[in-house]
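PROTEIN DATA CARD
Card holder: THAP-type domain-containing protein
Chain length: 616
Origin: Patiria miniata
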Amino acid sequence: MHCAAASCVNNSKYRDRLIVMPHVIELQFHKAHAEDYTKWEKKLDKTDYRVSQYTRICSNHFKYGKPLAGSSVLTLYMRSYPDWALSRKQAAKEVAAVENGLICHALVHVCKYLDPQTTTRLAEQLRVQPGKNSDCIFQKLLSMSSTEARQLLQQVAPIVPGGKCLEALHIYRYGALCEGTGWLSAQFQPTKVDSVCANKRKDCNPYSIPAFHSYAKPETFKQSTEMVHCGHQCNRKEGVAWRKHNNKKQRLTAVECKEEVLYENYFHGDSTLRETQNIQLSEKITEPESALKCTQQIMKGPKVSIESIKHSDELIQLHTGLPSYQYFKWIYKEVDKASENMKYWHGNGSEKAKKYIETNQKKPGPSRVVSKENELLITLMKLRLNMMEEYLAYLFNVKQPTVSSILSTWIPLLSHELSGLIYWPEVEEIKLCYPDCFKRWPGIRALLDCFEIPTQKPSHVEANTQVFSSYKNRATTKFCLACTPGGSISFISPPAGGNMSDKEIVIACNLPQKFSPGDKCMVDKGFLIKGELLEYGVELIHPPFVHKGQPFTEEKNRLSKQIAHARIHIERVIGRLRDYKYLSSEIPVSQLDLIGPAARVCCALTNLKSSVVGKS
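Structure generated from the sequence above:
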């Protein structure tokens, strides 16, 4: 049994491959009623396709996870699933690989949806006293070390119902809520567990993790309609309630039913309920004004800042990719002078020089909304985590255009100021750090390779042809990277379209001119640049090719393994660049002018880390 939606690959024969979205508790395959055949055919939008009694649609495509009266039409994921949608088995593996700073919160999020028996066994394993509520279990989970939490999450994740692992993965891996999915609530309220943890632990997450969200489940909808007893007619089988108004029936939603019940209970029910609510209201009104002012001040400030995370190297590495706060201070010191009178980018016309810049005077106008240190933090968080601009604006209590202006200004500034970290060393300097795996080929100056970054497909046909990569089978931006035998990045080319070959990029960026006569260059088989390097007296080292009619000898096989053993270091360098999610996520067409400076900044930051090559 398979789903008939064009974008869906769910098949009941392959349970491990099923994609279960977060709003679904149990994935099922549903058939349409005869009166809904025409509606389903319009939503499926398939040529010459007719819905029949054998047509099945999985729960992912219904608003409430199943067809209900009034909501039996397909509405969700009819074109395609989002990029973060994974199979249930894969989501269970990925959620256990969340960063150390958030692994405990992801574990709490997943454990909230365990069945009572499993929760009881978990409490016994954690040695929580019987009879305690779930908050005690969650506090115990939050106090666990990252290693223990990861091991427990690997055991618990496969048995969590529905798409809750996918939900936790999306929230705690990407650091932002998905907009427009129709299933996540846009509330960011700290949970009770978070508030208790904040008082007892100083190493908690500096900003509030989103609370456990309430979803529009069919069970909740039925409960709200079964509560109606004040003259409403309720059809429990269909989960729909009506009320009479001017002798006419009106359909009630779940929220309207709840409001009607509260209204009837308050004004026509027992007076005890009114007295209790009045007492609670009076207690809220008589709270100290100082607490209210303190709360208002907290809400006005940013949820995260450099001051709230600088005490923890783990949090610094999570948010910025830097090893510690000392590296952050050094980078800020390097760009502080250049950022005093910099002009922020606000669209066309921003490149014109201002009078205060030419005369080297202090920038006029109002003071900064965000400090320069936090602006640097916003930029590094964008490169490291690739958070949405709207979510960064929420975290720093500013507006989205402000974040966009900060990124458009700071990324080129960092690219210019930190370009000295990408250094083409001399031969004598390379010999100071020359690993043993390169001893067979003395005099290697650089290792070359290319990497591609996915980009949004341009609407113009000619532009799409230039950026389409036949290797990745999509639109990409391509860079040529060179690193020394010691593992430091020594060169990165300007961005090029994915349609360019490795040879064309090397020639276009004039890379052969950087070599000296007698140098050696190690590449992969795709770099057919032997003739171009010979003009400068450079020897090319590459794995041996297999020629037609000639056997691949044992000596060639041994040489190929030795070259691969040495070339793996540049692959590891590219892997470190991929740790910056901005370089591994799809870049919109509107940000293609920033992709080159962003890649140079990431290369410079990568050179600040320890070498990927072990000590000789």
